[in-house]
Amino acid sequence: MIDLEVMRGRGLISNDVYMKAGDDAVTRGSQGNRKEISQANQLPTAIAKGSQEAYKLMVANSNRATITKDSEAAKQTAVNKLQLDVAKESKAILAKLSEQLDFETVGS
Q1: Which residues contact 15 (CB under 8 A, 6 or more apart)?
Q2: How far apart are CA 16 and CA 93, in angstroms?
Q3: Between the CA of residue 48 and those of 22, 51, 52, 62, 83, what are the distances in Å?
């Protein structure tokens, strides 16, 4: 607007051109402000939606980790049980073998 006033003061533009340009500047400015206000009003909504999506993703990842952890714990428990069974069988076989060796030693 200052540039328009200087041009009008020097006689480079008429009063009608000055008024029209001023009205156009005000209209553009108010449209820009409306757009900025609209964007500013949308920003909290976008942040809230983004936060909700981030929270949902965080919960899903946490649930997936818990399920995976539980699954891994179940697998480890099964492996531990198999190891215990093998150890018991090995102990029983070694006991039988020891008895046979004692019997053969005593029997000879």
Answers
A1: 8
A2: 112
A3: 39, 5, 6, 21, 52
* Amino acid occupying residue 52: Q
d(CA 60, CA 65): 8
Which residues fall within 8 angstroms of residue 14, CB to CB, at 6 or more apart?
Answer: 8
pTM: 0.39
d(CA 23, CA 17) in angstroms, rounded, equals: 10
Give all strands (DSSP E) within the chain, no chain letters. none
Residue position matching structure tokens 């008895």: 99
CA distances from 59 to 18, 53, 64, 69 (A): 60, 10, 8, 15
pLDDT over 70 (residue 80) = yes
Rounded to the nearest 5°, which phi and psi values hold at 12? Answer: -80, -25
